[in-house]
Structure formats: structure tokens, C-alpha cells
Specification:
Length: 133
């Protein structure tokens, strides 16, 4: 595992102190974390969730993702069998200090939330030009 990957650490529900009181299942969505040249991209699976039902917050270096799926069956058809039930999604990660919170971007497309976490300019690698004497 790359040392850069350790800069995003998942938090457990006990660490976040969040307790749900809803009468719906609470899912922990599958998440892929990819390191890029500029930072990290998190790809979070949120099937059945529209962008307006996603809440992403960053407080004290803890990135929290909450989402709510809705039931949407085909019109004029009766559901006979469902492979999953709608519910709420929640996941939290602790970020290192080298990410630029002001430039984080989020987008939902085809049931996947993509979060781009760019590193701050101060944490980017520097190239030092060597002069000949």
C-alpha cells in the first residue's frame, strides 16, 4: 500500500458518534479510493440516490458522506421481487492536512458519487532546478 493512500482513513460509526433513529436500513456504501497526480478520488456507490439527496460535509478533517435512496418503481407495474431495499447511506473518512478543502468537488452520476480531493499547493512535490557553476 502506498504511503499516500494512508492519508484517507475510514472512520467507524463509533468514532463519528452518529446514531441513526430512522426506521430504515443504514448501508455502508462500497468505496474505491484512487490516487491521482493532483490528489485522491473517492468513488462511492450510492444506487437509487439523486444528487439532491446527498450530503457531503468536512469538519475537523472528517469527511462525512450521507445519502438517502428513494423507491422508484416502473409506472403502471407492480413490484414482485426486489434485490435491495431503499435505505440511508453513511460513510466517514479522516483526511490528512495536505488536502485543500476549498477545492473539493463532488458529482453524482449513474449511482456513483465521485469526490475529487486535491492536495494543497504547499503539499505538492517541488522540482528544484540545478545550476552548473
Amino acid at each position: 500500500m502506498s504511503t499516500e493512500m494512508t492519508k484517507v482513513k475510514e472512520q467507524t460509526p463509533a468514532e463519528t458518534g452518529v446514531e441513526t433513529t430512522r426506521n430504515r436500513p443504514l448501508w455502508r456504501p462500497l468505496t474505491d479510493i484512487v490516487e491521482t497526480r493532483d490528489g485522491v478520488v473517492l468513488m462511492v456507490e450510492l444506487p437509487g440516490v439523486a444528487a439532491e439527496h446527498v450530503d457531503v460535509s468536512l469538519e475537523k478533517r472528517v469527511l462525512t458522506i450521507r445519502a438517502r435512496s428513494s423507491v422508484s418503481g416502473p409506472e403502471k407495474l407492480r413490484l414482485v421481487h426486489a434485490e435491495y431495499e431503499p435505505g440511508d447511506y453513511e460513510r466517514a473518512f479522516t483526511l490528512s492536512e495536505d488536502f485543500d478543502a476549498e477545492r473539493i468537488e463532488a458529482e453524482v452520476r449513474n449511482g456513483v458519487l465521485s469526490l475529487r480531493l486535491p492536495r494543497s499547493a504547499a503539499s505538492q512535490p517541488k522540482t528544484i532546478k540545478v545550476k552548473s557553476a
